[in-house]
Amino acid sequence: MPEARASTTIDILLVEDSPDDADLMIEALKEGELESRVTVVEDGVDALAYLRRQGVFAAAAPPDLILLDLHLPRMNGHEVLAEIKQDAALLRIPVVVMTSSDSEQALLDAYDLHANCCVLKPRDQGQFAQAVKKIEHFWRQIARRP
Amino acid sequence: MNALNPGGRPIEILLVEDNVEEAEMTMQALREGRVRNRMHWVEDGEEAMEFLRRHGRFAAAPRPDLILLDLRLPRMSGQEVLAEVKQSPLWRRIPVVIMTSSDDEKDILGAYDRHANCYVTKPVDMEKFMAAVRSIEDFWLTIVHLPAA
């Protein structure tokens, strides 16, 4: 039941190469009524290394939720998503794709690769922060996570 | 935020639920929501597949934009429906929200392993049930960008 899980801290992996977007999202998550631990990685290669606890990420905690940008250096969001959703050890972790891309095809591709959901980043900063809070609220309080 | 709404066509929601009371409460909560939607209710897993395939009495059925799927269903279980939807190149992109009274970890893991988009347990209390449906509506119809095709 949601009430029982409300007090637990959740670990969020934020995969985002734009410092502005990452800062805004971290701020929005901090303002939530409950604590979230947010780890930011800036490209797709680091995201997978983190999830697989490789190299400098050997001590990384498995996240409860992944917020994934699609446009990333070194390895793009679609490739990261495909790797996660084909890996039996990772595929249960909910992945919320967040993009400013207007291309409908990019979002359809993300759904085909089993993104749990896709959210368009609103251009307005206030709306963007609000969307981040609602994502956190839904996945923490409403959805049952594995 | 959603490409389908506002201004466009209503969002087509397929509800797969064998409990009449819960189906009616779900539809009522969604009717009261802010986003224009059309509910299509079927009572078991086989009917859900017929709806998606547009067989028989579902010949004129629209493609759903979102599926709300119970797990305990007659004839064909929710996990089987989920597996078929998520293995099909035609339907796998349609978001499937599992709505079930089961709190069993095995059901939760089984659903995510089959690529359920999310899993929500239905509260027994009626007011909490309505609130849970409204939360699903608020998130999936206003924050999420549903796939347009």
Alpha carbon gyration radius of chain B: 14 Å
Gap from first CA to last CA of chain B: 16 Å
Which two protein chains have the largest interface (Cβ within 8 Å of the partner's Cβ), and how many residues from each? A-B, 27 and 31 residues
Q: What do the pLDDT scores of chain B average to?
A: 93
Overall structural class of chain B, as computed from helix and strand content, comes to: alpha/beta
| Low-confidence blocks of residues of chain B | none
Helix content of chain A: 40-55%
Number of strands of chain A: 5
Beta-strand share of residues of chain B: 15-25%
The coarse silhouette of chain B is globular
Rg calculated over all Cα atoms of chain A: 14 Å
Q: What proportion of the residues of chain A form beta strands (DSSP E)?
A: 15-25%
Q: What is the H-and-E element order of chain B? A: EHEHEHEHEH
Oligomer: heterodimer
Strand order of the largest sheet of chain B: 2-1-3-4-5
Low-confidence stretches of chain A: 1-6
Gap from first CA to last CA of chain A: 13 Å
Biggest sheet architecture of chain B:
5 strands, parallel
Shape of chain A: globular
Keywords:
heterodimer, A: 146 residues, alpha/beta, 18% strand, globular, B: 149 residues, five-stranded parallel sheet, 5 strands
Brief account:
The complex is a heterodimer of chains A (146) and B (149). With 146 residues, chain A is an alpha/beta fold.
Write a structural description.
The complex is a heterodimer of chains A (146) and B (149). In chain A, helix 2 crosses helix 6. The model of chain A is unreliable at 1-6 (pLDDT under 50). The longest helix of chain A is centred in the C-terminal third of the chain and has 18 residues, at 125-142. Chain A has six helices and five strands, in the order αβαβαβαβαβα. The radius of gyration of chain A is 14 Å and the shape is globular. Chain A has a five-stranded parallel sheet with strand order 2-1-3-4-5, sandwiched between helices. Chain A has 146 residues and is α/β, with parallel strands linked by helices. In chain A, helix 2 links the parallel strand 1 (10-15) and strand 2. The mean pLDDT of chain B is 93. Chain B contains five helices and five strands. Chain B is α/β, with parallel strands linked by helices and 149 residues long. In chain B, helix 4 links the parallel strand 4 (96-100) and strand 5. The chains are: A alpha/beta (146), B alpha/beta (149). The A-B interface holds A 1, 85, 91-92, 94, 104, 107-108, 111-112, 114, 116-120, 122, 131, 134-135, 138-139, 141-144, 146 and B 1, 3, 86, 89, 92-93, 95, 103, 108-109, 112-113, 115, 117-121, 123, 132, 135-136, 138-140, 143-145, 147-149.
